Amino acid sequence: MLNQHKILRVLQLISLLKQEPAKSIHQLGVIIDTTDRTVYRYFDLLKELGFELQRDQFNKYSIPASDGEGGVIFTKEESSLIRKMLLNFAKNHPLKDAVLKKIYLSSETTIVSSHLLRAHLGRIVELLCDAIETRRQVVLKNYHSLNSQKISDRFLEPFAFTDNYRALMAYEPASGENKYFNIERITNVELLEVSWMHEEKHTLTKPDAFGFGPTDTVYSLHFEMSLKAYLLLKEEYPLCGPHLTKSIHSDRYELKMEVNSRIPIDRFVLGLKDEITEINE
Hints:
Arc Repressor Mutant, subunit A; SH3 type barrels; five-stranded antiparallel sheet; four-stranded antiparallel sheet; about 35% helix; about 25% strand
């Protein structure tokens, strides 16, 4: 959680410093909800990453626009890394510093950073982080459920995120179950002034590679697929990677794993019917 907050705040700080007018340390601290001392620490980090911080005569700071701004083109490798950094919080990749410096210099990357920060999903993540840290109940407004095929408000006690930050783990009093809620299917979050009431029922369980939590039924999958399907599956569901192997019988690839729901894989296969074959054992 600390790493997630730090990345969100550093991204927000970069955005604020690149927007006119220049801002004081105190103003920046208030906006990103942290102390002046922490802002100075973030400044040190930005300098290490190669950002130029400019201070005016009023002790207000900004990041000056660079000559190449708007014309930076990311390589395929760097674009891939951005997604990994922001969604999986990779720390030690050798391209990290170079890519982070370019974050707001490319339209493609602005979309990615907005996913976490400036756009609607970023605000949802911040509200849920606040709810978890203050141990408060929330209402997910107009949640789009893939299981029930319904759009409804969900009253929850959120207590964690999945490692890839794509889903919320929460206890739902109405059903008496711990469930996973896809961040992208949340329309809005209402943060209630009510503390958790069922903390003893909060249970951390590991979701499957498609983000579904444990159910009464476990499904065994065995698929054979083309290179195209293999690459698309790894890109859309990277946690499937360890379960994908090269077939010893052909130039195709095999997926063998157990999942808690067939919905995601069946939907994926439907779009690539000519590329994937299910093997019944």
